[in-house]
Amino acid sequence: MIFSETIVVLGILTVVLFTIYYVWAKIADSKPLPGIPSVTVWSSAGFNVLHKTSPNVPESEQIMGWLERKCIELDTPILQIRTGLPGKPNLVVADSVETQRILTNILHEFDRRRFLAASFLALMPYNHMTMPTNDEWRANRRLIAETMSPHLLLEKNKKSAGRSFEVLADTFGVMLDGIVGATFGTDTGAVKTQLKFIQDFDGVAPIDGNRGFANLPRAPDPPLLDALVLLMWSLHIPTHPLGGPFFHKMAMRFVPRYRDALALVRSYLDDIIKRAEQKRQQLEENEELDSSTGVDLIVKHEIELAKSQDRAPYLHSGLLRDELFGILFGYDVLAIMAIRGLKILTTHQDIQQRLRAELKSTFPEAAAAGTVPSAEKIATTSTPYLDAVYEEMLRCVGSTPALVRTTTQDVNLMNHHIPKGTAVFLLTRGRSYTHRGTDDVNVGEKSIGDASKDVWTGNWPPEEISRFDAERWLTLDGDGRKRFNARAGPRHMLGTGVRACFGQKQATSVMRIFFTLVVWKLELRPIPTDLARFKRADAAFVYRAKEVYVSPQAFV
C-alpha cells in the first residue's frame, strides 16, 4: 500500500517537475533577439487571422499580409514575431537576395520538413513532397484542354443578362479537374456538372440589388471537391497557437465531417492506384501502355524499384497514396493563380489584348481556321509574352506568401545570431519583390555580393517595381527577337533550388493552357470597380480571394 502510494506521488512529482521545466525553457526561449525589429501579435487562428490590435488594423486580416505590410512600413528586411505566448520568436525575412542565399547556398542550415509535418501530418503522414519530375512525366494535355475550355463561362454569360457573375467556386472545380486529368487521366465531373446545370437552367439569373451582379445558381459540387475544400480549410487547426498536429489528428479521427472527408479522399486514391496496378498486370512482358498518366508512371516506377531491391512494391501501404494526395492538393494553388490571373486580365485590358494578338500570331494556322491551338502545341511552343505575363502574375499574386524553414543549427542571418530551432518565414512578395527597400543594396552586399545580386534581382527601377509589367521578363536576343528571361528578377513563390515545388513544371503547363484558352476564346470585359477589388479570404498561409467576378463574351 505504502509502495503504491509512493509510486503515485513520484509520478505526480515527475509530471509537475517536467511541466515546470517545460514552461521555464519556453520562457527562457522567449527573450527577444537583439537588434531585430519586433512586432507582437495575438491571433485566434494562428498564422491565419489577425484580430484588431490597433485602430489602424482591419478587424480580420490575413496575418502574412499584415507582416508583409509591416516590413514595408518599417523598411526592414528582417522582423521578429512575438505571439504573447512563451517560446522562441519567429522570424520574417523580406529580402529576395537573402532568401535566394538560404534556398540555394546554405539550405543545409534550414529545414522545411518540420513545418510541413506539423501542417500535413494528420492528412498525409507518408507524404515526402518528392515526386518524379523527369522527362518521363507527361500530363494528359488533351483532357486538361477539354476540362479548361471556357464553354462553361460562355453558357453562364447567356444567363446573366450581360452582368458580371461570380466564378470562384467554378475555378476551383476547373483546376481540380485539370490536375486530376493530368495525374489520373480522368476527371471528377466538377465542370460537367455545372455546365449541364446551367444549360438546363431556365430563364435569366436575378440581379443583386446592391452591387449589380447576376446571382447565378450552382449545382452541388462533386463529393471529392467538397471533401478537398474542407480538408484544405482544416489546416487552420495545426497552425493555431493553441492547436497543433495532435489536435488536427484528433479532428480527423473524431469529428465526423473531417473524418468522412479524409476517408473519401483516401478511398478515391486507393481505387486509382488499384486500377493503375491492374493495367500494368494485364500487360505482356516488356509491353508498355499506349498512353501513360502520372499515376501509371508512378506505379511503374515503384514496381521497378521494388524489383531491383528484391522486395514487394509499396503500392497499398499508404506511401503512394499520400504522395498522390500531395499532388491533388495542388489544385488549390492553381486555382488561386487562375483566379488572380482572371482579375489581372480583366483590369489590364491592354495586356489582355496584346496577349491575344501575340497568341494569334504564334499559332497562325489555328487562327486562320477559326479553331484553338491543340494543348500539345500550347505546352511545347515558345510563347515569350505568355510566359512573361504568367511570371508577372506569380510575382504580383504571391498566392503562397511565405516559404517556411526551421534553422537546424545556430546561424548568422544578416549579421544577426539566430539560434537553432527558430522558424523563419521567407516572404515571397512585398518588400524587395513588389516594393523596393532603401537598404536592399546593403543587404545584398552583406549576403552574396553584387554579382549574384544582379543575376537574381534584375535592374528594375524602384519606382516601377509595384506596377504590373510583363515586359520586365523579356529581353532581346542577338537577332533582335524578344525572349523570356526567368532570371530577370526575384521569383520565390514556388521555391527555388533542389527543394523547390516539385510540381512547378506541371503547374506551368496547366496554367499556359488555361490562359491561352481563356484569352483565345473570350473577351474579359471591364467590370465595376466594386466587383474588381481583390479581397483576401482568411486562410492558412495562402492568399485566397473572397470573391471573383467576370463579364466574359465570346471573342470572334
Automatic annotation (TrEMBL):
Keywords: Coiled coil, Iron, Membrane, Metal-binding, Transmembrane, Transmembrane helix. SUPFAM superfamilies: Cytochrome P450 (SSF48264). The chain crosses the membrane at residues 7-24. Residues 266-293 form a coiled coil. The keyword Transmembrane applies. Gene3D superfamilies: Cytochrome P450 (1.10.630.10). Belongs to the cytochrome P450 family. This is Similar to cytochrome P450. It comes from Byssochlamys spectabilis (strain No. 5 / NBRC 109023) (Paecilomyces variotii).
